[in-house]
Amino acid sequence: MASPIHITSKEQFQSLLSSSTFVVADFHAEWCGPCHAIAPVYDQLASQLSRPNRITFTKIDVDKQQDIAKAYAVTAMPTFIVFERGRPTNTIRGADPTKLNQVIRKLATEAGKSEPAGAGDASSSGGAGGGSWLGAPAPKGYTDITDEYDAKGLELLNVDSEFGVARALLGSAKPSVLGNGKTAEDAGADWVESDTDEQLMLFIPFKSTLKVHSLHITSLPPSEGDGDEIPMRPRTIHLYTNRSHVLGFDEADDIPPVQAVTLESGDWDPKTGTAKIDLRFVKFQSVFSLNIFFVDGDGDGEKTRIDRIRIFGEAGEKREMGKLEKIGDEPGE
Predict the structure, then answer these.
(1) Which pLDDT belongs to residue 322?
(2) pLDDT for the residue 70
(3) 269 tagged catalytic
(4) Could you tell me which of 173, 48, 160 has the C-alpha nearest to residue 100?
(5) Active-site hit among 5, 23, 35, 202
(6) Of 32, 95, 170, 204, which residue is the catalytic one?
(7) Could you tell me where in the chain the CATH 3.40.30.10 domains are found?
(8) 12-39 confidence digits (pLDDT tens)
(9) Per-residue model confidence (pLDDT) at position 137
(10) Which residues in 120-224 belong to E strands, given as ranges?
């Protein structure tokens, strides 16, 4: 059906990771004898099993695309890496045609399963074409990397215990208020609201070092209610990177944010309640933790509501979790 796509840039590869649910990458080198030996097997699999926007086969010359090889810790050739929705899920090292056949044909079975409802809709599909709900299209060339967060270290300050927890914000399910097939009794509150005032502080440690391109914030407060009892959408947001812990509110006030954002009413998509935040990418090139400080809300209410947060960019090498505290509080940060 199709030949493998020869990757000529990091941007091209990231674009394919965003547009195709499954991507298979053959990391090879011209001087590598085993690479040439297994190439006909790989090419035949690509010809038989490629499917537009579902499963894409690529070839990456490690000498010409050293940045990509380094990002995925490729040190031996050939190495085959399978990506699902932009995330590496399986690695085959060496020219083993039997194992390659087994892994790729199992992948093809997965790719052939029926796609989730609404998978072709940008407002309901994941950045790589299925599964995860998004309130807005993923930025071109970047993937949804929200699932890189470390659940054990996740913290949320000033949250009202009557509603959801921090994990709900980073979940991939469609918000219940938009209709996800579950009643409130079944699902529980899948959003968070602030407690004593409008401020919220979310600490997100990551399992790998990220390049963060942008954020999508979804907030779906009710349109009717009693005055200041109606929760607000966030207006001012301060972002802090590479801290070893959740910042206290007073502590955050004393530290200049890496970026401050002000959201206007026109920034929110009327259908999905989602606002896109483009980051100063140069300042978010090596991020292993993120504090998101929701400073105030857009209105006269007393509480702020957040339904979902999605993070877009690139993931790099896995981080040794024990080193977070050691390197998170460097002098002068």
Answers:
(1) 46
(2) 93
(3) no
(4) 48
(5) 35
(6) 32
(7) 5-112
(8) 999 899 888 899 999 999 999 999 999 9
(9) 87
(10) 143-144, 155-157, 192-193, 200-218
pLDDT tier for residue 289 given thresholds of 50, 70 and 90: very high
Least confident of 4-18, 199-213, 306-320: 306-320
- DSSP 8-class letter at 37: H
Question: What is Dmax (Cα atoms) for the chain?
Answer: 73
CA distance 266 to 303: 20
- Kindly state the tokens that stand for 26: 């053959």
**Is residue 86 a contact partner of residue 38, using CB atoms and an 8 Å limit?**
no
Distance set, CA 26 to CA 10, 115, 249 (Å): 14, 26, 47
| C-alpha atoms less than 13 angstroms from C-alpha of 311 in its C-beta half-sphere | 25
CA distance 85 to 142: 11
- Is residue 103 part of the annotated active site? The answer reads no
The answer, yes or no, to whether residue 211 has pLDDT greater than 80, is yes
Q: CATH number of 5-112: 3.40.30.10, 1.10.10.10, 3.40.50.360, 3.10.450.50? A: 3.40.30.10
Could you tell me the pLDDT band of residue 326, with boundaries at 50, 70 and 90?
very low
CATH 2.60.120.470 applies to domain 143-328: yes
